[in-house]
Amino acid sequence: MKEKNRLLLFIIFMLSFQSIVVCQTIIEEGKGIDSLTIGIKETKVIKFLGENYKRKEYHDKKYVLEYKKELINLVFDKDSVLEKIDISIGKHNYKTKKGLRVEKKTTITEIEKIYGEDWGGISNNQQIYYDIGIGFIFKKNYLKEVVIEKGDDYSFYEYIEGIYIPKDLEDCYKELDKMLERM
């Protein structure tokens, strides 16, 4: 009987540990969150996050899809390609690929320990941005938002300036065939 109880406790522990690991979403600097990456089309985003969004016009022929429940705003260019992800800090459990736990109480000092002190920003340390495609916005010294933008790595992009980028050689040949058929 004791062995069954130990086994049951072990199984419960493993399941809880697994849910803790699974629930922590990784923000990848200059790339995105999971399958939600910079450089994908709006249709793919909607397939991933669903139809429960509000569309707002932005400047320079850009627009935003606002997912209030997920606390995410997605900025698209005129070709419907995702170019920026704004994540409001709230109920979700995020961690950056470099290891920063993202929560309201995260400080600029903690960010600088991981990302360094060489950042660009806006007055009073309320907005700090790094060249690797990540920024942090504060309000009254509390982290309010994380911004993911284009970094230096374009290898995972599906589209650049509205032009489809084949993912491998086979896909490249398919795209070439399509182009030749149109001629």
Outline:
This protein has four helices and 15 strands. With 183 residues, it is of the alpha+beta class.
Task: Provide structural commentary.
The chain has 183 residues and is of the alpha+beta class. 28% of the residues lie in helices and 33% in strands. It has 4 helices and 15 strands. The chain has helices at residues 2-23, 42-49, 108-115, 169-182; strands at residues 24-28, 32-33, 36-37, 54-57, 63-67, 72-76, 82-88, 93-96, 101-102, 120-122, 127-130, 134-139, 142-149, 159-160, 163-164. An 8-stranded antiparallel beta sheet has the order 4-5-6-7-13-12-11-10, covered by helices on one side. A 5-stranded mixed beta sheet has the order 3-2-1-8-9. A two-stranded antiparallel ribbon has the order 14-15. The longest helix has 22 residues, at 2-23. It starts with a helix and ends with a helix.
N-C termini distance: 76 Å
Order of helices and strands: HEEEHEEEEEEHEEEEEEH
Mind describing the biggest β-sheet? 8 strands, antiparallel
Spans where pLDDT lies below 50 across 5 or more residues = 15-22
**What is the average of the pLDDT values?**
79
Number of separate helices: 4
The SS-based structural class is: alpha+beta
Radius of gyration: 20 Å
Number of strands: 15
Q: Widest sheet: strand order?
A: 4-5-6-7-13-12-11-10
Please report which band the strand proportion falls in: under 5%, 5-15%, 15-25%, 25-35%, 35-45% or over 45%.
Answer: 25-35%
Can you tell me the overall shape? globular
Bin the helical content. Answer: 25-40%
